[in-house]
């Protein structure tokens, strides 16, 4: 297994450094930004080249770190172990959007965001090990206690998302912040839809993240009104916080809150309007990972739905091999659980067809069958094999191993 992608021990790499690398990647072609970025100065101290100034050096080393993850020309473009490199190259080097990159790789948008976070961390590990580990340890020694404390606390947070209405969490966040808001002459107005807005969420993590965002907005706002609006847009629940900032030129969040947002896979952005107001937007995906279950046993499909719904998975049922192939093309699920013994089109045929179609070739497939023949399953392209009768923990552990939940 590649250490830079999967086995780097927590605590070895400061999360602040990962954030800096992500920032630099997002501005890969913005020379002015790179020239004044802290990483440019750090790398320049240990890796110099005649005639090359820090911004150029940082860009070169970022691209070099991306190339260090290249699995080689013999690996198929959509192979799972090539995905991190290809996402980095498509999104940052070729400047494709996340949506376009996901389409090129034949994966869901959710999977693309998840893999991109792993890929950014992999680039950070390459740079850290090449140049900055020792220098960073010296320069950051006064902050060691603070950083290790934050890292240790965040390492203990392992979200267990389940479908929940986000509206009560917003009301509790307002209750937590309201006293401070009154002291600052700020009124918090919630504009929530009448119907539940269900998102996959760890309620403890989600509540703390929402409270942290609202607290930061209130601290930046002038006396007056902060309007908090929750809307549904396609597959996203979008939270908008509108206020007039006092003297804060940018909107930023404490590192702990940023980590909580990342653990929930929530996306945040902010924008200053011409009228002087500021809009902070938080986008929460309303659906968890999609798992396509192809099995003609309706009872088993219902059982898997009960197993997985509590873990915020969306189960897509298919009761025949032919229907499963059609749904795999239409829905691009995050994973497929596949039975073998089905009439007309059996599971072996389904598996071979999935692996020959570009749109489905990289989708993880868990073969789940009474035919205990894992060697055949793996030879045809299965990601994992589970013998029936299947237990709840077997399914969940398999999905965790594949990075789906």
Question: Can you describe what's shown?
Answer:
The protein contains 17 helices and twelve strands. The protein is of the alpha/beta class and 405 residues long. It has three domains: 3-155, no CATH class; 162-285, Histidine kinase-like ATPase, C-terminal domain (Heat Shock Protein 90), CATH 3.30.565; 290-401, Response regulator (Rossmann fold, 3-Layer(aba) Sandwich). The strands form three sheets. Strands 2-4-5-7-6 form a five-stranded mixed β-sheet, covered by helices on one side. Strands 9-8-10-11-12 form a five-stranded parallel β-sheet, sandwiched between helices. Helix 6 runs antiparallel to helix 7.
Q: What key phrases describe this protein's structure?
A:
single chain; 405 residues; alpha/beta; Heat Shock Protein 90; Rossmann fold; 3 domains; 5-stranded mixed sheet; 5-stranded parallel sheet; 17 helices; 49% helix
Helices, strands, pairings?
Elements lengths: L2 H5 L7 H12 L4 H5 L2 H7 L9 H14 L15 H11 L4 H8 L3 H31 L4 H12 L6 E4 H18 L2 E6 L6 E4 L1 H18 L3 E10 L2 E8 L11 H10 L2 E6 L5 E8 L4 E5 L3 H12 L4 E5 L2 H11 L3 E4 L8 H10 L8 E5 L4 H6 L4 E4 L4 H10 L4
Helix pairs in contact: 2-8, 4-5, 5-8, 6-7, 6-8, 7-8, 10-11, 11-12, 14-15
């Amino acid at each position: 297994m590649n250490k830079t992608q999967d086995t780097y021990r927590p605590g070895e790499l400061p999360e602040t450094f990962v954030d800096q690398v992500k920032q630099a990647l997002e501005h890969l072609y913005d020379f002015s930004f790179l020239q004044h970025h802290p990483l440019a100065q750090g790398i320049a101290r240990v890796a110099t080249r005649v005639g090359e100034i820090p911004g150029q050096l940082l860009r070169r080393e970022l691209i070099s770190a991306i190339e260090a993850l290249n699995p080689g020309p013999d690996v198929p473009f959509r192979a799972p172990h090539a995905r991190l490199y290809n996402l980095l190259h498509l999104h940052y080097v070729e400047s494709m959007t996340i949506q376009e990159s996901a389409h090129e790789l034949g994966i869901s948008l959710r999977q693309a965001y998840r893999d991109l976070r792993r890929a950014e961390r992999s680039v950070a590990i390459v740079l850290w090990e090449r140049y900055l580990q020792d220098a960073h340890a010296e320069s950051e020694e006064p902050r060691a206690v603070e950083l290790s404390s934050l890292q240790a606390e965040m390492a203990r947070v392992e979200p267990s998302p389940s479908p929940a209405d986000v509206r009560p969490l917003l009301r509790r966040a307002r209750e937590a912040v309201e006293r401070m808001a009154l002291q600052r002459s700020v009124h918090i107005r919630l504009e929530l839809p009448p119907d539940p807005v269900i998102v996959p969420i760890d309620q403890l993590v989600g509540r703390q993240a929402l409270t942290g965002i609202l607290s930061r907005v209130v601290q930046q706002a002038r006396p007056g009104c902060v309007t908090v609006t929750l809307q549904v847009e396609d597959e996203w629940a979008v939270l908008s916080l509108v206020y007039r900032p006092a003297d804060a030129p940018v909107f930023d969040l404490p590192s702990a809150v940023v980590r909580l947002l990342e653990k929930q896979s929530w996306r945040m952005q902010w924008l200053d309007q011409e009228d002087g107001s500021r809009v902070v937007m938080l986008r929460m995906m309303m659906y968890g990972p999609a798992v396509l279950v192809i099995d003609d046993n309706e009872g088993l499909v219902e059982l898997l739905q009960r197993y997985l719904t509590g873990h915020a998975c969306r189960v897509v049922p298919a009761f025949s091999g032919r229907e499963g192939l059609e749904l795999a093309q239409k829905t691009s699920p995050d994973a497929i659980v596949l039975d073998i013994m089905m009439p007309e089109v059996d599971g072996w045929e389904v598996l071979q067809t999935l692996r020959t179609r570009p749109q489905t070739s990289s989708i993880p497939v868990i073969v789940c069958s009474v035919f205990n023949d894992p060697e055949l399953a793996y030879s045809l392209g299965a990601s994992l094999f589970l013998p029936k009768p299947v237990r709840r923990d077997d399914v969940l552990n398999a999905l965790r191993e594949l990075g789906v939940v």
